[in-house]
Design goal:
Layout (H helix, E strand, L loop, with lengths): L2 H22 L1 H6 L5 H23 L12 H24 L2 H8 L2 H12 L6 H19 L7 H23 L6 H24 L8 H26 L4 H7 L2 H12 L7 H18 L8
Helix pairs in contact: 1-10, 1-12, 3-4, 3-9, 3-10, 4-8, 4-9, 5-8, 5-12, 6-8, 7-13
Length: 296
């Protein structure tokens, strides 16, 4: 390995670590934004879309999108699912702890295993079957035990719903390999905005002008830092690291989320729920070493 290549990989690792630490703090910031989940998701998408537009312009990618015009439909539906994925995840934060929300959200790779076998006819091997069983057992432990609050089960189900939508986004992107990571994310953010705007107009309304300074700052950080900048760092780093390296580093996200949930928000989590989360993450790690991790 050349010195330049080694230095590039070090920088890429640092970028992934920064992104994963940031993703692990999303729940903390969302908790302090007093807006409906759908409106938070919409403004997150708008702010991040504007940030990524700058990167699209400076990298020259914007001018090349027209050649993929016939394949934009899939990414539009994936973007719509991404928007509602955010809504369900933010709702999970409201009903249960950030820790349980995040751990249930990490059931997504298990859903992807099943989806890949059904859609792409990928044959399940013995390891994948075992990982599916172990991960499902972990989810049962999380749902079956109360710890963080009276609405734990509802919150975990919202997290699971977000995982289902993430799996749809992942599988749709897998079926559309023509786009680079930054471009596909930019397109899907645009689609999320297009879908969430009428949804918020008809269902929740807009309350952005009612935000106090602290809520507005948290929303800007969520959109600019957590979504715009961190997604850019994440996709920039992917090109320089092996899937195994990225998969292992991705576990910084749920670990940070669980630690902050307990240390900062003082949210409870039982030993059985923690064990269930460990089963989900362990099974996911065992199966996902050759895949890309999920992002919040």
């Amino acid at each position: 390995m050349s010195t330049t290549s080694g230095r590039t990989q070090i920088v890429a690792r640092i970028e992934i670590i920064i992104a994963m630490v940031a993703f692990g703090t999303i729940g903390i910031f969302v908790r302090y934004i007093p807006l409906p989940s759908a409106e938070i998701a919409l403004w997150r998408g708008i702010i991040a879309f504007l940030v990524l537009t700058l990167f699209m312009l400076t990298s020259g990618r914007l001018s090349g999108i027209s050649k993929y015009r016939g394949k934009l439909g899939r990414l539009f539906f994936a973007g719509a699912a991404m928007g509602f994925n955010w809504i369900l995840l933010f709702e999970a934060y409201r009903y249960t702890s950030v820790a349980l929300s995040t751990l249930s959200y990490y059931f997504a790779p298990t859903i992807i295993i099943v989806g890949s076998s059904l859609i792409f006819r990928e044959r399940l091997n013995a390891k994948q079957v075992v990982c599916f069983i172990v991960s499902t057992a972990g989810l049962a432990l999380i749902i079956g035990v109360r710890g963080g609050g009276a609405n734990d089960t509802i919150g975990v189900l919202f997290g699971l719903g977000a995982a289902v939508l993430y799996a749809f986004v992942f599988l749709t992107n897998k079926a559309t390999p023509e786009f680079d990571g930054l471009t596909r994310t930019w397109i899907q953010f645009a689609a999320a905005i297009i879908v969430l705007t009428p949804y918020c107009t008809l269902v929740t309304g807009f309350h952005i002008l009612e935000l106090h300074a602290s809520g507005l700052v948290n929303l800007l950080i969520l959109g600019v830092v957590h979504t715009g900048l961190m997604y850019y760092l994440y996709f920039s780093a992917l090109a320089h690291l092996k899937g195994q390296q990225v998969a292992i580093l991705s576990y910084i996200d749920p670990i940070v989320a669980v630690l902050l949930s307990v240390a900062i928000l003082h949210e409870g989590i039982t030993l059985l729920q923690l064990a269930g989360g460990g089963l989900i993450l362990g099974a996911t790690l065992a199966n996902e070493l050759n895949r890309r991790p999920i992002v919040a």
